[in-house]
Amino acid sequence: MIFMHPPRFHYLMVDHDNRKTAINMDIHFQHLDDESLICQIQEGKHEAFGEMVDRHSKRFYSTAYRLLFSKNDAEDIVQQAFLKLWERRLFWNPNKGAKFTTWFYRVVVNLCLDHNRKKKPMPLCENMELVDEKDGQEILLDEKRKQALMDRFIKELPERQQLALTLCFYEGLSNQEAAEIIGIKLKALQSLIMRAKTTMKEKLNHHFD
């Protein structure tokens, strides 16, 4: 079992021979690239696995949150994904040339999509009632309301459009990387983004009108 505390997962433990062993980060592994770390993980080196978690957990927690809109669910998904990495480490084939992050995005995205399909969706509140008596908070509250509105509209998008926006705009991936993660051609990805942007614009115009 993996224990992590986002947004940065400082502490991690792995069951090994029915014992919980704390993993101490080794500075040696911090200088390895992801693919070299995977090779070390395949050899069963917990320190390399700990470095991989520490290096990427914040990024993938952000992705999971953008798809689930729940901190607890996002934490659970990222833990499941890293547990899959450890359990299936011997299946990784470095000769295929696939980047670790591309492969791991697919794992996280698929877990999020499966979770959303099984869980009854909870609508996001349209109007956030935020109360703060401190001076100078009006701008902050207004930004939070705007973000809540955007989150609601994104959540209402079709699954693949929501995923395309999340990967390309929130995660900053290239269209090609996003297409590979979703498993579609580049033109299809571009079409998803275009439709999503059109829908978002229409919703925002309708809301403010």
What does this structure look like?
- The protein has a domain at 1-121: RNA polymerase sigma factor, region 2, helix turn helix motif (Rna Polymerase Sigma Factor, Chain: A, Orthogonal Bundle).
- The protein has helices at 27-30, 34-42, 46-68, 71-87, 100-118, 138-155, 159-170, 175-182, 186-208, and strands spanning 13-16, 19-22.
- Helix content is 64%, strand content 4%.
- A hairpin with a 2-residue loop joins β1 (13-16) and β2 (19-22).
- The termini are far apart.
- Strands 1-2 form a two-stranded antiparallel sheet.
- It has 209 residues and is mainly α.
- The longest helix is centred in the N-terminal third of the chain and has 23 residues, at 46-68.
- α7 runs antiparallel to α8 (175-182).
- The protein has 9 helices and 2 strands; from the N terminus they run ββααααααααα.
SSE map:
Elements: E1 13-16, E2 19-22, H1 27-30, H2 34-42, H3 46-68, H4 71-87, H5 100-118, H6 138-155, H7 159-170, H8 175-182, H9 186-208
Antiparallel strand pairs: 1-2
Helix pairs in contact: 2-3, 3-4, 3-5, 4-5, 5-8, 7-8, 7-9, 8-9
Search tags:
single chain; 209 residues; mainly alpha; Rna Polymerase Sigma Factor, Chain: A; two-stranded antiparallel sheet; 2 strands; elongated; disordered N terminus
Rg (C-alpha, Å): 19 Å
Residue share in helices?
Answer: 55-70%
The whole-number mean of residue pLDDT values reads 79
Q: Cα distance, first to last residue? A: 50 Å
Helix vs. strand class: mainly alpha
* Helix count from the secondary structure assignment: 9
Strand content: under 5%
CATH architectural category of one domain: Orthogonal Bundle
Major sheet attributes: 2 strands, antiparallel
Shape verdict: elongated
